[in-house]
Amino acid sequence: MIVPPLANQPIAHTLPPTREHHQFLLGLHDAVLTLQAQVAALEAISGPTGIYGPFYINDLPASSSTDGAHGVFNTPTAVRQTNRDPRMGSAGRVIGAWITSDDSRVTGTATVRVRRNGTATDFASGAVQLNATNVNRNSAIVPYASGVAFTAGSDVGLEIVTSSWSPTTANIVAFMMVQFDP
Question: Kind of pairing, strands 49-57 and 92-101?
Fold first, then answer.
């Protein structure tokens, strides 16, 4: 007989967390706290601001452009990835991006780009990048006027462009911050 866990009791993990898993979770936690503070500051002076993501890429390729995907439950216990980007209900701009890897960069770069209706464009001149200086996580926020503009009804997402990247077993999670027109 299988006994479900008691209410409000954690479910035991089958494997102990690894150092890389711990680093990944710490990076994700730091990113969320940073995002919350930045959203509050932006909403105080402008139109509504939202955070979209996470966008996932499993086993980041060495040299390619890879669309970030969302996890979608296709059964009560299984998740599949889909590359359908969020559809924006009103016009605005992408003003922030974050990237975190569960494994430290060894060689090459992984750069975040914004996709609008399937076409990618640079964000912050390629500033959100994993490289020799930023091996696990990086982020940038730009002024509204410097953000990547989109119109109402646009599908907006992220892609990661790699160049001589390793390890190809690294998993990526990325977020974007959107500021809608007032």
Answer: unpaired
CA dist 83 and 172 (Å) reads 14
> Which region, left, alpha or beta, applies to residue 35 given φ > 0 means left and ψ of -120 to 50 means alpha?
alpha
User: How many angstroms separate the CA atoms of 145 and 121, rounded?
Assistant: 16
**Strand runs (DSSP E) across 62-171, as ranges?**
65-67, 70-73, 79-82, 92-101, 107-116, 119-122, 129-130, 137-141, 148-150, 156-166
Please state, in angstroms and as integers, the Cα–Cα distance from residue 151 to each residue in 54, 88, 120, 129, 146, following that order. 22, 8, 15, 26, 15
Q: Where are the domains of the chain?
A: 19-180
Query: Domain 19-180 belongs to what topology?
Result: Jelly Rolls (2.60.120)
pLDDT tens series, the chain, 182 aa:
444 444 444 444 455 567 776 677 777 777 777 777 777 766 666 678 889 988 989 899 999 999 988 777 777 777 777 778 899 999 999 999 999 999 999 999 999 999 999 999 999 999 999 999 999 999 999 999 999 999 999 999 999 999 999 999 999 999 999 999 88
Amino acid sitting at position 47: G
